Amino acid sequence: MLKFSSRPLLVLALGLVASASLSMAQSKVGIINLQKAVLDTAEIKKAQLELEAKFKPKTDAIDRLQKELADIQNKLQTMAGKLTPQAEQEMQITGTRKQRELTRLNEDVQGDVDRERNEILGRAATRMQDVVKKMADASGLDIVVDVSNTVFFKTSLEITKDSTTAYDKAYPVAK
Q: Is the four-CA dihedral 147, 150, 152, 158 of positive or negative sign?
């Protein structure tokens, strides 16, 4: 009588079941450069121009103070030994005062710009996530991964440009 071992058949059957479940578990993936997608939106481009215009008077004041400070330093160097000690001291005091004023103004402007930019970017990033979720649902994507978390991907998986276009459509900017 032939001895028939069911063990190889069992292994083969388990292998077939495992490969079938793997093929059913394949996920559709999209890749996005979220930072680029947000920064390329019409809303962010407009906000950047508005921020530049809003802070132009202060940046002009910074430039003016930097020029005045450079002029004082230049005069102190070129007129070294030609100025009275009192005149030299007054110029140094003026330079110190302008340097302090410049530092304060720089810190104030930088803080204000950072705060406003972070508010704008935070709002836009939240909106972009909503747009990406809707796009993923509409195109049957199971997962969307930021490009910064990938080592390699096929460019056909990238949805950055489509995301920016969908964002601009969902949140149009008044011109």
A: negative
141: Cβ contacts below 8 Å, ≥ 6 apart: 28, 29, 30, 135, 159
pLDDT digits 0-9 by tens, 130-155: 999 999 999 999 999 999 989 999 99
> Residue ranges of the domains in the chain?
26-170
Q: What pTM value is reported for the model?
A: 0.73
Contact 69, 103 (CB under 8 A): no
C-alpha–C-alpha distance, residues 38 and 160, integer Å: 9
Separation between Cα atoms, residue 60 and residue 43, nearest integer Å: 25
Class of domain 26-170: alpha beta
Find the Cα–Cα–Cα–Cα dihedral 131, 134, 138, 143, rounded to 10°. Answer: 90
